[in-house]
Amino acid sequence: MVQTYWVAIGLIVPVTLAMFGAGGASYWLLLQPALLGAVLAASTLRARHLRRLRELEVELHEQRRIAHTAVQERLELDEAKRRLIASVSHELKTPLTSIKGYTEILKAERLGPLTERQARALSVVARAVSREEALVENLLRFANLESGRYRVERTIFDLRGTAKKVRDELAGLAARREVLLVLALPGEPVAIAADPAGLETVLTHLLENALKFTPKAGIVELRIDASAGRARVAVSDTGAGVPDAQRRRVFEPFVQADAGDTREHGGAGLGLPIVKGILEAHGVTVSVDERPGGGARFRFAFPLAEIAARAA
Amino acid sequence: MAETRARVVIVEDDEDTRIFLVDLFESDGFSVRGAADPEGAYAAIRDFDPALVVMDVMLPRESGFDIYRNVRKLRGDLPAIFVTAKPTDLPRLHAKELGASDFFRKPFDAEKLLASARAAIAGGAERRAA
């Protein structure tokens, strides 16, 4: 708009000179109001644009302020959420310490001999305590992932070792559920650069989940393949599978494939969200589809860390 | 009869956990004194002359780490095992930095804690003899 104004002024001077030069003063007089009108129109337009610009600026400022407040509120909410879960976990763990501890030393007869009935009762308490402990642990882990405080510390290790360790730990659960737990591993080391404890948690939750949803006499398989520079992991089962519509939802917290299942299968529904969170922190995506022949199949892949594997 | 059992000081502000820890160590043949706060901790370590201190990290007024730092000025060879219900990994790193013998998250495994305590006392005795 500033330019228009000056262009108009710039026109008046040479045109005036040209008119007088040609001796046509009367033409000039006729032209003068038209030129002035143009100048006035231009400046009015300019003023109006400036006003609109100022309005937009104010609006933008206001929008920015609102956005900033929203971000601030979100951050504060996240922080409050993190503090709440951390403090709740702390409060839950403190009494668990003496409950778990006394159960353990009573069972070990450190405080005197037990009758058979007392020993049996304590076994039930011990099982319940470890369930409670696992639940608190998962809540805490999930809260940590949610708040973005989980930082991946990568080491290079053989994923087969992790798989075997997790299998050994879950052998008891598989036997109780009368489900066959199968490991299919390559003969060569499968070296990846990741957080070993994180990957142990991932495999534990995927296998626990599969065992939980597989009926008696079913099969749960953990398969690891190394090919084309990738370590591919698949956990499949012979359960009911995950319906198409629920495939995204199973990774959401506090959700199980069929909401009605929660009671039957137990757990808070934090296992798969934890799996997803840990893998995402590694830059890895986990997906679920159908196992050929029925059942669920969870899959993810890591780049192989071949060279360093020999040093590890 | 002279006291020959290894002496342990337990510093824990949660009463139930303290009672349990005292019971646990006594059941394993240790001679135990419990303290609920920093003042009690300093007094117990001074008067009881333990071979090991098992200490909670979060205590009123002063942290277990602070107490250990002060105690080490007088008894540089005293081994410590820290326990905490804190969820973050920071205390573990902190304990390591301070030269603690071990670190346990609550709720811990009683037998593992005892095994670690025996090892820490053996290590402390070695340091003292050296």
What does this structure look like?
The complex is a heterodimer of chains A (312) and B (130). Chain A is an alpha+beta fold. Chain A is 62% helix and 13% strand. Chain A contains eight helices and seven strands, in the order αααβαββαββααββα. Chain A has helices at 2-22, 25-107, 116-146, 159-177, 196-212, 261-265, 271-281, 306-311; strands spanning 155-158, 180-184, 191-194, 219-227, 230-237, 287-290, 296-303. Chain A is elongated. Chain B is an alpha/beta fold and 130 residues long. Chain B is 49% helix and 18% strand. Chain B contains five helices and five strands, in the order βαβαβαβαβα. The longest helix of chain B is centred in the C-terminal third of the chain and has 20 residues, at 110-129. Classes of the chains: A alpha+beta (312), B alpha/beta (130). The interface between A and B is medium-sized, with 24 and 22 residues.
Helix share of residues of chain B?
Answer: 40-55%
Measured by residues with Cβ under 8 Å of the partner chain's Cβ, the largest interface is: A-B, 24 and 22 residues
**Largest sheet: spatial strand order of chain A:** 2-4-5-7-6
| Secondary structure tally: strands of chain A | 7
The fraction of residues in strands of chain B falls at 15-25%
General form of chain B:
globular
| Proportion in helices of chain A | 55-70%
Oligomeric state of this protein: heterodimer
For the largest beta sheet of chain B, what order do the strands appear in spatially? Answer: 2-1-3-4-5
Head-to-tail CA distance between termini of chain B? 28 Å
Structural class of the helices, strands and pairings of chain A? alpha+beta
